Amino acid sequence: MKFLLVFDFDHTIVDENSDTWIVKCAPEKKLPNGLRNSYRPGHWTEYMGRVFAYLGDNGVKEDEMQRTMTTIPFTAGMVDLLGFIGENKELFDCIIVSDSNTIFIDWILKAADFHKVFDDVFTNPAAFSSTGYLTVQNFHAHHCAKCPKNLCKTQVLKEFLDKQLERGVGYTKIAYIGDGGNDLCPVMFLKKDDIAMPRQGYTLEKKIAQLAQDLSPVECSVLVWSSATDIISYLKLLIKE
Question: Which residues does the entry assign to the active site, renumbered to this chain (predicted)?
Answer without folding.
Answer: 8 (nucleophile), 10 (proton donor)
